[in-house]
Amino acid sequence: MLLIRRFIGSGVRMLILSSNRITDYRKGLLHTMMNSEKACTIWLTGLSGAGKSTIAHELAPMLQARGRHVEVLDGDVIRTNLSKGLGFSREDRDTNIRRIGFVCHLLTRNNVFAIAAAISPYHIVRNENRALIQDFVEVYVKASLETCIQRDVKGLYRKALAGEISAFTGVSDPYEPPDHPEVICETEKETPCQSAEKIIRKLEDLGYLSPLPHTASDNGVYLAAEEELVMKRLEDLGYL
Amino acid sequence: MFNFLKKDVGRRVVVVSIDGVPYDFLKTQIAKGNFPNFKKLAEQGSMRRMNSVQPCISSVAWSCYMTGKNPAKHNIFGFVDRKPGTYDIFAPNSMHMRSDTIWELMSRAGKRVFVMNVPVTYPPRQVNGILIGCFLCTQIEKIAYPAQVSQELKQMGYIIDAEAWMARDSLDRYLEECNKALNKRAEAMFHYLAQEPWDFFQCHIMETDRMNHFFWEHMEKGDPKYAQAFFDFYRRVDEVLGEVEQRHGNDAELIILSDHGFCTIKQEIYLNYYLAEAGFLKFKTNTPKGLGDMHADSTAYSLTPGRVFVNLQGREPEGSVAPEKYETVRENVARALLEFKDHDTGAPLIRAALKREEIYHGPNVKTAADLIAVPFDGYDLKGDIKKMVRSEKTALVGMHTFEDSMLFIRDHDIRRGHNELWVGDLAPTILKMMALPIPSDMDGIALI
User: Is residue A13 located within the same domain as residue A102?
Assistant: First the structure.
């Protein structure tokens, strides 16, 4: 029996901890709670419209749910502040990616998961960032140019194809896919949630996250039969 | 002399949450002398009426409670939601909650916590202590963090939830199950209250909500059999609270609260049927099974309770409403909602149709329904698309209300009026009691 006395104000509080109850999982938990697990930069690269931002915003809450600090650096947003004024020449694009990389580096070394969602079309600068940050997980967000043109969420492809935007990645400027990304998310075949879960599994494999205490199914929580039971329970309660 | 150097280390806190217990009901019963322990407690602090959230259902309300934030920040908007980009439905759980909970904040500050059965805590996220999940779990082996607690609960014969299908089969059997579940909950609570070191301890009693859903009307009408059984059940809840109070007289703060009130259901209203009658919703088949059977010309549809979505291009897989028409369609649907009537009595069904941005603010606001229909008490809004009727009366006889949840805090005077109190205020209140920092993005305001 381990007896701990804690003085609180003028009173004395005794916490009696039975030593056999302080088991390994709790030691493991304290380890987690002290934020001593390392963070990393998750670098999402791919064509405009491939799904980088969508995956980033699926992934962030999953990491938060594990008690980790997270920051999303969205390329479109970064260009309105940190990289405001930069254009789309090769030099300006490289500067933009280096700046994002530098911020990711600062965040990561302070135990914050940095999720960068930027087209980052060129090998060489992505690899520079990898060398700088070291704890770097490259995710290739893969979708064909045809699909991205079809999606055209921001209407940029239409303009690029009409010649209204010059040097547009995939249309009039090259995109160099990563040779050895840690994860490939094929967004024509996967939902954003499945892609984010794939990244989570990789982070577990690489030791950046402790695996959850439960076995995870496709949606991270339920096996199909369990999900059916939950929906039935909600229906019986009149919640459907 | 050196008082200014003393660090405020805060107090321990016990919370007993009693799902769906209305303030008015409790006040009346206390006045009648029915619940002696509630009465004794009420004399030791402030008992107040409190507002819930919209929609006033447990998953949303308790998520606001445990985060101190509005739904657009924590991302839980109902018991079911749409999978993004599809018409498929899923049950949001703790993994969808995009916020720290108070027990996670406490854990990181080195406090030990015990949390049992609070809605939307399954799957159990890691804490410094024990977290036992809620009725979104179907297998007891998976309900708790750490995993070995699940085994302990299994050995105790712990009941995750009184299964509501029983009520639709036999009210007697359900009554027995609710009592059994309550006793098992109390047994587990007192076991861990005695065995575990804790700085924060919360036990959630779900069975009150379950009883209210299936016996509220029987109680109000003074049914000779079930009204008595209803009060007997509540007397047992009162005993449990008395025991908590006895075991933790003054060595911890004590909070008791509910998340919404209750009233008798006049009719369950199938809002999608009304939307179809008004021309907003069409089906591909005469026997639709789900939202996937919605015709592509549809402009609006609903999920329980009263959450209405515009069938928007670019968001819904077969969206028909162009983004530039969104506001016009939303206005039209809102107007129509306010005109829907009880076809038997001619009484209006819906007292307000709120735009999401009127009541929610935060990064997940776009996940919310476009309109939140607030019904008049008695009209329980359902989203079941399979029902090809306007309304019906079923075994479900009680529904949630917004204005009548209850809050009790021992030894503190709550000076705000009930319209200035909501469940989100509890998170900063509890953190303050424990002398922990209150995150600046919490929407709730400490009550002490």
Answer: no
Instruction: State whether ipTM is beyond 0.90.
Output: yes
Q: Domain range for residue A19? A: 2-32
* Total residues found in chain A within this entry: 240
Place of tokens 């047994």: B187
Token pair listed for B126 = 């890691």
Provide the number of structural domains found in chain A: 3
Give contacts of B142 with chain A, Cβ < 8 Å: 214
Which residues on A lie below 8 Å from B93 (Cβ)? 221
CA distance B28 to chain A (A): 27
User: Is the Cβ pair A26, B384 closer than 8 Å?
Assistant: no
Q: CB-based contact (8 Å) between A5 and chain B?
A: no
In whole angstroms, what is the distance from residue B285 CA to residue B385 CA?
Answer: 12
Assess whether A105 and A223 both reside in one domain.
no
Contact B75 A236 (CB under 8 A): no
A154 and A48 Cβ atoms separated by less than 8 Å = yes
pTM of the complete model: 0.72
| B-proximal residues of A, 35-54, CB under 8 Å | 35
pLDDT digits (tens, 9 = 90+) for B408-444: 999 999 988 878 899 999 999 999 999 999 998 899 9
Same-domain status, A166 and A230: no
Give the C-alpha separation, B148 to A109, whole Å.
34
In the structure, what pLDDT confidence band is assigned to residue A64 with cuts at 50, 70 and 90?
confident
Q: Are B201 and B244 in contact (CB under 8 A)?
A: no
Is residue A83 part of the annotated active site? The answer reads no
Do A165 and A82 have their domain in common?
yes
CB contact under 8 A, A67 and B126: yes
Return residues 303-342 of B near A (CB < 8 Å).
304-305, 314
Let me know whether A27 and A46 are in one domain: no
A52 & A142 share domain: yes
